[in-house]
Amino acid sequence: MSNQALPSWNNGAAKSAILDFVARVTKEGGPDFVPPAERIATFDNDGTLWCEQPMQPQVFFLIDRVKQLAAKDPSLKDRQPYKALLEHSLKALHEQGKQGLMELAFATHSGMSEEAFDEIAKAWFASAKHPKFGRPFQNLTYRPQVELLEYLRANGFKTYIVSGGGIDLIRAFAEDAYGIPREQVIGSSARLRYELQDGRAVVMKVSELNSFDDREVKPANIGLHIGRRPILAFGNSDGDLAMLRYVKTGVGARLALLIHHDDDVREVAYDRDFRLSPLAEALDNAGEYGITVVSMKNDWKTVFAPGRAP
Amino acid sequence: MSNQALPSWNNGAAKSAILDFVARVTKEGGPDFVPPAERIATFDNDGTLWCEQPMQPQVFFLIDRVKQLAAKDPSLKDRQPYKALLEHSLKALHEQGKQGLMELAFATHSGMSEEAFDEIAKAWFASAKHPKFGRPFQNLTYRPQVELLEYLRANGFKTYIVSGGGIDLIRAFAEDAYGIPREQVIGSSARLRYELQDGRAVVMKVSELNSFDDREVKPANIGLHIGRRPILAFGNSDGDLAMLRYVKTGVGARLALLIHHDDDVREVAYDRDFRLSPLAEALDNAGEYGITVVSMKNDWKTVFAPGRAP
């Protein structure tokens, strides 16, 4: 166990649990050794790897997309749900719920190929800024978590994102921000359809939900995409509870972690009242389920990377 | 270009096309250079990486599974489609078509967790033998293809299987046979459902088709699982044509390959009349689509690994 590991984490129970777990599963010949091929770690994204307040960045992307569409078709400004979006009515947006917002997202950014979407997403990340922090969204990743991802990979882990967010939006920034390649991103997805356009084959995003990757769907999508039970998972809301329990109830050494956003100075303190992604059941039952709760306030020396966010 | 590369391939146009392509995409500073992260190669499995005659090994697995089930429930012996399966009626089986067989497969090996299925599949691979060659099915992989997979990985490629076969059956042997890890296998799949059983979380295979990974669905599933357009693809039937065209019509250096089973001495000569997976349209249009046809008879020095198959 290196003293240099995870410098943005304060010493304490959470950091010790991580360092002890990694030491055990990587100790060849030890009782808890896990071969590298089985060292799968899955991370939620919104609120676990980057800031999701006041709304998930995906929602800001959706608003900007609707603005672009309304510039071409002004009649959208008078129709719901576009009207609520264009008027920045946070209440109306929250009332859509997470799945409603995802469906709106698919309705507004489908009808194009995966590759065309990737260009739109990358252009957005290059110019959009968080309304409170005034920084690009991809610079609001949590420094301790980026360190943890790197530490796990240095110890032979394969790191995945398993998010309720749109799979292709996350893919547009995850490699730069987290070192996680596109094929290790699992998320909500539109149905995809192969088409020939003037002799060129493309995969089109169809205006139809394929998978809403939240709650019980997370372990099911892990089964589809990875086909192995991860040995470590990290989440921050009840939407991650099924994934955390799937990991924690596997045979052998397992670590399930949950960020508690209790730091109102450096970020935002919230849990059960955050309608878009509440944390209640997982927090209330963390002890019984063997989930390690990480306090942002106490366990993280730094929240955002210096020079990247306040 | 090493003279030692691909020793089981005869010198000729196909081998040159592969060696030239790999040299071009790996030459830093060259006009066709592709960064390692984008070096994705996708391979069909049945008939491309292993023998699919007289039927795909998946079908033999299905027959053996139905026998196991009929041992527990003898009434199955008098009911179709089980009757045809149990009587080894190849004609009746062929009449089901590839998708019908897949659906039968899901009906007979679902209702269990992914992990329980993996144990059943591994036990089958350990004992089942090919009816003609008398060897375990996983020993009927093509030696030139295993060499090609290794050669591509040695050149920074990430190798995937994209198969019409059941994803979890392939995962049970692909790592040992091909060096392809479970998470790099894409295939036909049953719907998956998260369940808590006595406090233990499991992912159950439900008796319902999630995706039949054939023809136009292959590129769509590549979009879902990988999120990048591969730069090399290898198939052997019309079921692979959409994937080959998706790869070949991408921007930049691309290689699409098609095995033609024209070797009746060392394997089986077949193409357009193989009802379970015909090759006709892809072969007839290979020139127009820029697909490199590989002759098993002329381009492969060896077909099966020595000591592993006749």
H/E series of chain A, N to C?
Answer: HEHHHEHHEHEEHEHEHHEH
Oligomer: homodimer
The CATH first-level class of the largest domain in chain A comes to Alpha Beta
Shape call of chain A: globular
Can you walk through the features of this model?
- The model of chain A has no long low-confidence stretch (mean pLDDT 92).
- Chain A is of the alpha/beta class.
- The first copy, chain A, has twelve helices and eight strands.
- The first copy, chain A, has two domains: 201 residues, 3-Layer(aba) Sandwich (Rossmann fold), CATH 3.40.50; 71 residues, no CATH class.
- In chain A, helix 2 packs across helix 4 and helix 5 packs across helix 7.
- The longest helix of chain A has 19 residues.
- The two termini of chain A are 31 Å apart.
- The first copy, chain A, is 39% helix and 17% strand.
- Chain A is globular.
- Chain A has an eight-stranded mixed beta sheet with strand order 2-5-4-3-1-6-7-8.
- At the A-B interface, helix 7, strand 4, strand 5, helix 8 and helix 9 of A face helix 7, strand 4, strand 5, helix 8 and helix 9 of B.
List keywords for this structure.
Rossmann fold, 310 residues, 39% helix, 8 strands, 2 domains, alpha/beta, homodimer
Please give a quick description of this structure:
Chain A has helices spanning 13-26, 57-72, 82-86, 90-108, 114-127, 143-154, 167-178, 217-225, 241-248, 281-284, 286-289, 296-299, and strands at 40-43, 112-113, 158-166, 185-197, 200-211, 232-235, 255-260, 292-295. With 310 residues, chain A is an alpha/beta fold. The first copy, chain A, has an 8-stranded mixed beta sheet with strand order 2-5-4-3-1-6-7-8.
